[in-house]
Automatic annotation (TrEMBL):
Predominant cellular place of this UniProt entry's protein: nucleus
Organism name: Kingdonia uniflora
Listed name of the protein: MADS-box domain-containing protein
SUPFAM superfamilies given in the database record: SRF-like
Localization (cell): Nucleus
Region entry Disordered, spans: 1-26, 176-205
Length: 205
């Protein structure tokens, strides 16, 4: 037996105590200035978050660069940018100096390598200075002169230390030459005694 359609959707066919809910659908909001200050601030905060979210989705989906800057009703600035607001603004104002994110990454990697090389060089210089200081302290504690140092220590000297040693050797050579000339210029007392003795013997004869 067929049931009439009028009975299928009639209120009498529904369970007792229940009424059919009618949906009003999405309510259209008039786009106009919100006069209430509190409501305006709340709406701005919600819409701003939604705007930044959509901007982030756009960059993720399309790989584009984007910058969004807005001021709240209270004159507070908010911004969102990918890769950054400054980068996008510079690209707009100075297109000839634009650098792509890949170029930025390569440049940053090169800068990090250069900084690491400088750090390694500084550490090598620091270690060399520590070794020189240690040798100097050992010489002072043992009352040793530089010529008493073992040959291994001389081989480990730096350029500055070798230059100082070279200067000291030159000064030592000059002093030795000077002393030698002074000794040569002075008469030998033994020869003088022999000459005096020979003169005395001749006078006796």
């Amino acid at each position: 037996m067929a049931i009439p359609k009028s009975l299928l959707f009639s209120s009498s066919a529904m369970e007792p105590g229940k009424q059919r809910k009618l949906s009003q659908g999405r309510k259209k909001i008039n786009i106009e200035r919100i006069e209430n200050t509190g409501n305006r601030q709340v709406t701005f905060s919600k819409r701003r978050q939604g705007l930044f979210k959509k901007a982030g989705e756009l960059t993720t989906l399309c790989g584009g660069e984007i910058a969004v800057i807005t001021f709240s009703p209270g004159d507070k600035a908010y911004s969102f940018g990918n890769p950054s607001v400054e980068h996008v603004v510079d690209r707009l104002l100075y297109p000839d100096n634009y650098t792509s994110p890949m170029q930025l990454k390569v440049g940053e990697d090169g800068l990090r390598r250069k900084e690491q090389q400088e750090l390694d060089e500084f550490q090598r210089q620091l270690e060399a200075e520590k070794r020189r200081t240690k040798r100097s302290e050992q010489m002072k504690s043992g009352n040793k002169f530089w010529w008493e140092m073992p040959i291994e220590s001389i081989n480990n000297m730096g350029v500055e230390e070798l230059e100082k040693m070279h200067g000291a050797l030159k000064e030592l050579k000059l002093n030795v030459d000077k002393k030698s000339e002074e000794k040569i210029s002075l008469p030998d007392p033994t020869i003088r005694n022999i000459d005096d003795r020979a003169s005395g013997e001749q006078s006796e004869i």
